[in-house]
TrEMBL record:
It holds the Pfam family ABC_tran. Transmembrane segments: none annotated. Belongs to the ABC transporter superfamily. Keywords: ATP-binding, Cell membrane, Membrane, Nucleotide-binding, Plasmid, Transport. InterPro entries: AAA+_ATPase (IPR003593), ABC_transporter-like_ATP-bd (IPR003439), ABC_transporter-like_CS (IPR017871), P-loop_NTPase (IPR027417). This is ABC transporter ATP-binding protein.
């Protein structure tokens, strides 16, 4: 397997604490990898190293075999798009203008937005079910509408790789399924941090489970999401079976085991 994006032995340390500790992760073309783990396990920190906002204490990140530290900013942005947890700009803007920012890495110098750019922006908004929001102002959108618009900006970048930190955050169930379905249908190469383990199991080819900064399991959903591991990492009791309709791994939690 030749990786599009690869993190090798990544470590990020703050003072004496290793927040990410020796994590290696590789993404193949067309693959959707789910990054899962409890709150504070290091998912966002690992993603930040992959999109090179956070320089690793040790380890390297390679994009198509090239160390990302050696790639110029615009070139990186042509290849990698990011939906971070705090992606919304601090200023207000029209939705169309925000999504158009995704085209900047592809535009030359002071070039104006081309008809093609505008068509890409409209299509990206349509894909996330936000076509009707094109003329709205960002400040007046709901949390879920804003999240979909930010995802449209990432899609408008037409990257080789998408790095998404909880893209389904704020979304109602239908939009959660639509956004994840979009990644799958288009065979986008993506690493996606997710909290909903059933969504991760249903849509991801592979899961990487983090616990206290270390990768404790990885593989196909059925290999990773065992009752014993869910108990060990999340401290919850769960039954795992195969959904009769979809054939995918399904988890049923038994909260009584926590609440007594
Ligand atoms: N800049 C920082 N300085 C100190 N500690 C930090 C910093 N950034 C993150 N941490 C700590 O690192 C740990 C991992 O944080 P991170 O956001 O990567 O976890 P996460 O798995 O994405 O969590 P969540 O599921 O809650 O979003 C947390 O305990 C957090 O408090």
């Amino acid at each position: 397997m030749s990786a599009v994006l690869e993190g090798r032995e990544l470590q990020w340390q703050v003072h004496a604490r290793r927040i990410v500790d020796g994590a290696s992760i590789a993404l193949a073309r067309g693959e959707c990898v789910g990054l899962i783990g409890p709150n504070g396990s290091g998912k966002s920190s690992l993603l930040r190293m992959l999109y090179r906002v956070l320089p690793p204490t040790h380890g390297r990140v390679l994009l198509l075999g090239q160390d990302v530290a050696d790639i110029e900013g615009r070139a990186f942005a042509r290849q990698v798009a990011v939906l971070a947890q705090e992606s919304a700009p601090a200023f207000d803007t029209r939705v169309a203008e925000l999504v158009m920012l995704g085209r900047i890495p592809h535009q030359a110098g002071w070039a104006r937005d081309s008809a093609q750019d505008q068509a890409i922006v409209r299509e990206a908004l349509r894909q996330v079910g936000a076509g009707a929001l094109v003329d709205r102002s960002l400040a007046e959108l709901s949390g879920g509408e804003k999240q979909r618009v930010l995802l449209a900006r990432a899609l408008a970048q037409q990257p080789q790789v998408l790095l998404l930190d909880e893209p389904t955050n704020h979304l109602d169930i239908r939009h959660q399924l639509e956004v994840m379905g979009l990644l799958r249908r288009q065979r986008l190469s993506a690493i996606v941090a997710l909290h909903d383990l059933n969504i991760a199991a249903h849509y991801c080819d592979r899961l990487v489970l983090l616990d206290q900064g270390r990768i404790v399991a990885e593989g196909e959903p059925a290999q990773v999401l065992t009752p014993a591991r869910l108990q060990q990492v999340y401290g919850v009791a769960a039954e795992v079976d195969i959904h009769p309709g979809t054939g995918r791994t399904r988890i049923s939690f038994t909260p009584e085991a926590i609440h007594g």
